[in-house]
Write a sequence for this structure.
């Protein structure tokens, strides 16, 4: 859930400075403070985050604007994958979408493939990913899109080089009934887990795999093909197995989006954050229902390559 944690001193400064201005000239941070949930932090609470920065992972999708130096804020941001700004000159422009759109055509080059598509979002802080595409493993030919190869390229672009929290969380969700006959669920889970070594990050990664069926309550709600992180999403209009190296596997639109647009901050449109929330809330509801579920054959579940008899909860921190 997106929320703004802001030091009381910084909050008062922003409000005092921006409130007298005309609506058109007020800062985007001020407008966001008036739209989104806000928790003001006392000096003691700010110092607690400064001394124990890992606490930010209790709210991993939030914006932190703290009464600390720029160097301290950047250190927290890089280490824990959250947007953390100094109250000196807080700039929320990285959270405002730049309207980056990519059009892929079958067997035609699109720049450098996923490298090109993800360029506008890959430098945003990140501590978790959810990838959902019911037909991710429906094909077994490179020209139609190799699901494993595409996931590897996506992870290599999006996983940060530095991360000092506990495990970085990756969850991959697909339709287990529509996968190609050449795959078993166990083989997919094993191959996805092997990607952790292939992309060469030095921190631990939790690889969570959920194979749903049409009998799952969330099946119809996961029609959109999405990559979701804590500050952005990427929507593929046809499939996430979008490339064979740098060539498109289908004619489709690939749309990376950060949480807000200028229009949404000004109250004139819906922020991309809403679509992220819809998907995360769907998964959160399914996760909370699992302890009371009587039929666990409607899905398959694995963590770090190990098939589990049942899932007690989806572990990805984005569901917090």
């Amino acid at each position: 859930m997106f929320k703004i944690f802001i030091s009381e001193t910084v909050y008062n400064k922003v409000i005092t400075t921006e409130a007298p201005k005309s609506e058109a000239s007020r800062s985007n941070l001020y407008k966001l403070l008036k739209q989104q949930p806000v928790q003001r932090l006392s000096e003691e609470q700010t110092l607690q985050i400064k001394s124990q920065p890992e606490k930010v992972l209790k709210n991993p999708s939030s914006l932190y604007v703290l009464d600390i130096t720029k160097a301290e804020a950047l250190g927290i941001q890089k280490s824990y994958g959250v947007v953390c700004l100094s109250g000196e000159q807080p700039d929320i422009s990285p959270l405002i979408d730049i309207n980056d759109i990519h059009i892929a055509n079958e067997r035609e080059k699109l720049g450098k493939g996923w490298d090109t598509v993800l360029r506008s979002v890959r430098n945003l802080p990140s501590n978790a990913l959810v990838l959902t595409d019911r037909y991710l493993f429906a094909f077994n030919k490179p020209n139609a899109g190799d699901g494993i190869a595409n996931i590897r390229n996506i992870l290599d672009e999006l996983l940060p080089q530095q991360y000092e929290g506990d495990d970085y969380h990756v969850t991959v969700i697909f339709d287990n009934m529509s996968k190609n006959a050449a795959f078993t669920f166990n083989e997919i889970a094993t191959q996805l887990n092997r990607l952790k070594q292939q992309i060469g990050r030095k921190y631990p990664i939790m690889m969570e795999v959920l194979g749903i069926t049409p009998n799952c309550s969330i099946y119809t709600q996961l029609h959109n093909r999405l990559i979701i992180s804590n500050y952005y999403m990427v929507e593929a209009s046809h499939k996430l197995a979008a490339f064979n190296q740098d060539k498109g596997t289908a004619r489709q639109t690939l749309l990376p989006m950060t949480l807000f647009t200028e229009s949404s901050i000004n109250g004139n449109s819906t922020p991309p954050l809403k679509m992220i929330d819809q998907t995360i809330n769907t998964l959160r509801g399914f996760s909370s229902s699992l302890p009371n579920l009587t039929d666990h054959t409607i899905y398959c579940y694995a963590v770090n390559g190990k098939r589990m008899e049942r899932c007690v909860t989806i572990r990805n921190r984005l569901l917090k």
